[in-house]
Design goal:
Protein name: DUF3772 domain-containing protein
Helix content: 55-70%
Subcellular location: Cell membrane
Organism: Pseudomonas migulae
Strand content: 5-15%
Radius of gyration: 41 Å
Keywords: Cell membrane, Membrane, Signal, Transmembrane, Transmembrane helix
Membrane topology: Multi-pass membrane protein
């Protein structure tokens, strides 16, 4: 018994990190058993109660919301609540693991009285079990709180969607109606009191920060924030610019790094100055709930305005045109230069006033009027921008100078923005103010997303091209370390660049539809992950929203397929060892599979479940049985041609009297180009089911240039044979092996018929070679005084 107890204690101390060597010589009586964990759980019942009260307060706040914009701050608070719950749960997990391990060492309670254990072990087990139960109960409570918070996030999303739909369809007075402006020009007494209360709370905060004894410190902090905002930004931008110029390799990577450095310098310095300002006015006392809500919303608007100016300055690069990423004409960039600052200033002032009305809970009339002012002013700025830019673009085109690349895409964006401005103006004139405000905000949000992700995509592409370049140190190191060929490194660079840019493009499209002006990074990530990881639509609901999503999915899918198809055909596949026919077949197969996936994605966007497609399959089976047999047969035959490749693009084939080169293999039919450049469309099923002669399938097919000539009976056959043989052998396109050959074909009363045969390198040059040989043979026969046999006269 003594040795068994000693062995058990040895194992226990080994598990918990003690030195067992110190225990081997010790007596069990002198060794105390492991004690229960003395530290109580780090989460007390009062903490759990505080979390529950906090969650209940959030639910009550959300239930009283009647404005779409008022849900942004509660959503952030719920996200913070979930992070706090996760932090507490993580802190308890090690304690739970330790208690389980200690209970495992002690083992279960003995059932046999003969094996009764010592009282101190029983007491130890009871104490550990009690602590473990407390920790388990606490973790279970935290998990329940997190589940409730997650459900609340889902409910907030539903409320936001419903409020947005109701606001967009809400019809108010037109901006031309004088009563529309009356809430701003002559606000009600209640609105005045709310605004006065806000100003009073703000003045109290300023007084606390400017009280005697704190004025010098406050002045220093305000001056420091101003210096960081202005001088600090310039110094940070110059420092990062110097770093990029002297540390980044020369080329496109340096150019994209300069643009990214400019954006980062602006955002970081402005963010630091904003945090410093917040500290100045909150170091003495916390803000009131109204001011706290306003400060959070003001911070979002400030970051939005900063991103507008930072991205515009980085992409336009009017001071250094050679650093400019988009291929814009200098005149266009200069015409766009003043508008980002104007737009940012307008949004900062007007949206800040709107946030004051939201934070103080003013009447709906003044909120709607404020939205109208924001939409009207922003629309006027954007209309002027589009008008001036369009005028400059037309002048650039008329002058014949170099114009921006991607003109089609730029034209599409210009058209969409112009259409959006028309919708805004019509909405403001007809009284749909919230719709106009929503469209203007979405335009600003779209600019931020497209510009930001364009910059990231360019940086990623340039980084891949540099790091896998055979001229860069990293490329040379990879080549030496892994023994990769230069062509493989280039292929890896193209594949990684294409995959990365496609992923960023997909993320940009998702972000474009789940965010908006004033969306925080936490909200954005939550919405993106919920969409990318969601189960999708579960019902067959054909509604306008689903139709819009389906149309967008179809257009974006077709654009992606064509873009990736051009990338495969022009960039990736030419770097491989595949022949042109195989490359064309792979490009066609990729396009066919891609279009099929786009159709399925469009059906999903419409809300059609895969289980609801049984009626479509049934209808197709009936249609196939009657009228679609040939189409399906040709479709399957096309897939067989693309996979088994009995014929490929570029092959010279002959089928049913048609001989020519395969130009393209489509899903239903194959295009064959004849010698006269005309095209014959042959169904794919004929290429599979009929006898087909593929002249170039072996890859080394030769052409046969054979001529049959008849001479009079009185000629010298040997002389004519040598003349024909030498003519063939001396021609540059006739191969030496197999050697030319002259045969005595037949002997008739009309004359002697000789056949001369030679081989050329390709069947495609047989006709030209035979023509040249005939000219040369007739010339030599004339010089030798030999005539061809004349046909017998017909009686």
């Amino acid at each position: 018994m003594r040795h068994a107890l000693k062995a058990m204690i040895f194992v226990a101390f080994t598990l918990f990190g003690a030195d067992p060597g110190m225990l081997l010589a010790a007596d069990p009586a002198d060794i105390s058993m492991p004690r229960a964990v003395a530290a109580p759980p780090s989460v007390s019942p009062s903490d759990l109660q505080a979390l529950q009260l906090r969650l209940d307060a959030l639910k009550q706040q959300i239930s009283l919301v009647d404005n779409y914009s008022q849900l942004e701050a509660p959503q952030d608070l719920v996200q913070m609540f979930m992070l706090d719950v996760d932090r507490l749960s993580t802190s308890l997990l090690p304690l739970q693991t330790q208690l389980r391990a200690q209970l495992g060492v002690l083992g279960p309670v003995p059932r046999d009285d003969a094996a009764a254990e010592q009282p101190d072990i029983t007491a130890q087990r009871v104490a550990l079990t009690e602590q473990k139960n407390k920790v388990d109960a606490t973790l279970k409570t935290l998990a329940t709180l997190k589940t409730s918070a997650t459900d609340l996030i889902t409910q907030i999303a539903g409320i936001r969607r419903n409020l947005l739909e109701s606001e967009l369809t809400l019809s108010t007075r037109s901006v031309l109606n004088p009563e529309f402006w009356s809430p701003i020009l002559s606000p009600s007494m209640d609105d005045r009191q709310r605004f006065a209360s806000f100003l009073g709370q703000a003045s109290e905060v300023v007084k606390l920060a400017w009280q005697p004894g704190q004025r010098l410190y406050t002045s220093v902090l305000l001056l420091l924030a101003l210096l960081i905002w202005t001088l600090g930004r310039r110094l940070a931008e110059r420092g990062l610019t110097w770093l990029c110029i002297h540390r980044m390799p020369e080329g496109r990577l340096r150019r994209s790094s300069l643009a990214l450095a400019s954006v980062l310098a602006t955002v970081l310095t402005v963010g630091l100055s904003l945090q410093l300002l917040f500290y100045v006015f909150t170091r003495q006392a916390p803000l009131t709930p109204t001011l706290s809500t306003f400060s959070q919303e003001f911070e979002k608007v400030a970051y939005t305005c900063v991103l507008i100016t930072a991205l515009s300055r980085a992409l336009l690069s009017t001071k250094h045109p050679s650093w400019r990423l988009p291929a814009l004409a200098d005149q266009v960039a200069l015409s766009l230069k003043p508008y980002p600052r104007v737009l940012a200033g307008v949004l900062l002032i007007l949206v800040t006033m709107i946030q004051i009305t939201n934070a103080t809970g003013m009447s709906s009339g003044i909120v709607i009027a404020g939205r109208g002012v924001v939409a009207l002013v922003v629309t006027c700025v954007l209309v002027d921008l589009l008008w001036r830019t369009g005028k400059v673009r037309r002048a650039v085109v008329a002058s014949g100078e170099a114009y921006e690349a991607g003109r089609t895409f730029a034209g599409v964006l210009y058209t969409l923005a112009s259409l959006a401005m028309v919708i805004c103006l019509v909405s403001l004139l007809t009284g749909y103010v919230s719709l106009a405000r929503f469209v203007t905000y979405e335009l600003v949000w779209g600019f931020l997303i497209l510009s930001g992700f364009y910059l990231l995509m360019q940086c990623f592409k340039d980084a891949c091209e540099y790091f896998f370049s055979i001229k860069s140190p990293s490329g040379k190191a990879l080549k030496q370390l892994l023994g990769i060929e230069d062509r493989r490194l280039e292929q890896i660079s193209i594949v990684l660049s294409g995959v990365g840019r496609a992923g960023l493009l997909l993320l940009a499209l998702v972000t474009l539809f789940v965010g908006g002006v004033g969306t925080t990074l936490g909200q954005l990530l939550t919405n993106v992950f919920s969409i990318l990881g969601g189960a999708g639509l579960r019902k067959l609901n054909i509604i306008p929203g689903h139709l819009l999503n389906a149309a967008l999915a179809l257009l974006i899918g077709i654009y992606l397929i064509r873009t990736l198809g051009r990338w495969l055909d022009k960039e990736f596949l030419p770097k491989t060892e595949m022949d042109p026919g195989m490359r064309a077949s792979l490009t066609t197969l990729f396009a066919n599979i891609g279009y099929a996936l786009v159709i399925l994605l469009t059906l999903s966007s419409l809300g059609v479940q895969w289980t609801n497609l049984a009626w479509i399959v049934s209808a197709l089976s009936v249609g196939i049985g009657f009228g679609l047999q040939e189409i399906v047969k040709n479709f399957v035959s096309g897939l067989i041609l693309l996979t088994e490749r009995p014929v490929k693009v570029g092959d010279l084939i002959s089928i049913s009297g048609v001989e020519g080169d395969i130009r393209r293999i489509n899903v239903r039919a194959t295009e064959i180009q004849l010698s006269d450049r005309s095209i014959v469309i042959v169904p794919n099923s004929q290429l599979i089911s009929q006898n087909l002669r593929n002249v170039t399938l072996g890859g080394s097919a030769q052409g046969v240039a054979s001529l049959e000539l008849t001479f009079p009976l009185d000629i010298d056959p040997e002389q004519v044979k040598d003349l024909l043989y030498n003519t063939y052998r001396e021609h540059e396109t006739i191969l030496d092996k197999p050697a030319p050959m002259v045969r005595f074909s037949k002997l008739t009363p009309e004359g002697i018929t000789l056949t001369v045969t030679g081989y050329v390198g390709s069947p495609r040059i047989v006709g030209v070679t035979k023509s040249d040989l005939l000219f040369e043979i007739l010339k030599r026969l004339s010089d030798a005084g030999i005539e061809l046999a004349k046909p017998a006269p017909t009686v």
